[in-house]
Input
Amino acid sequence: MTGRPGLPGRARSWSQRFADRLEAIGATVPPGPPAAGVTGLEVEAGAVTARVREGQARYDVRIGLAEFTPAQWTRAVRAVGADPDCRARLLDNELAPDAEDLFARAGLRLFPARTPDLAMECSCPDWALPCAHLSAVLRSLADAFDADPYLVLTWRGRTREELLKELPPAVPRREPADSALLLLGRPAITVRGRGLTEVLGPAYEAFTGW
Output
C-alpha cells in the first residue's frame, strides 16, 4: 500500500491517510490476495477482524489498536465541540477532513504512531508480519475508511452515535452589546446631553453577561 500524492486543492482521502501512516511507520504492505478475498470485515473498539480466502484455505485475521482512554476521549470531545466545522460535519454524518489534525492538537493520534501500536495476528503458517492475508485486510480496511470515515474513531473506541451523546451543547453566539443597541437606532431622548443608547450601554452589557 503506497501513499499517493494528493491532488491540488483536494483533501486526501481517509484510505490515503491510512496508507501514508502505515508507510511512515515502516509497516509496508506487500501484494497479496485481492480485497475480494476478504470477508466479514468488522471494525470494533480496539480491533479489526476479518477472514481471508486463499484457494481452499480460510485464515482468520485480527488487527488490534489501543482504544483511547476515557481521559483521552474527554480531550477529543472537547476538541470536536470547540471546532464549529468539525461539530457541524459530525451532525451531518461527516468527518471533517482536518479531524486528524484536530485530534493531533489535542495530543491524540487517530492512526498508529509506530509499528508496535498495531497488534497483527493471522492464523496462517507464515511468520511474516504483515503476511499476505494481513495485507489484504489492511487494504480492505483502508477502503472501509473511505466508505465510512467514522470507522477510524470506532477503532479508537467511540462510534459516531456515542460521540454525539458526549458532545456538550453548543454555546449560543452572543451578539455584542454595541451591535444590539445600534439596532435601536438613535433615539431623540438624551440624559444630561448624552444619547440614551450611550447611557444604557453599560447596563445592557451587564444584563447580557449574566
Q: What stands out?
A: Strands lie at 38-44, 47-54, 57-64, 119-122, 190-191, 194-195. The two ends are 56 Å apart (CA to CA). Residues 132-147 form the longest helix (16 residues).
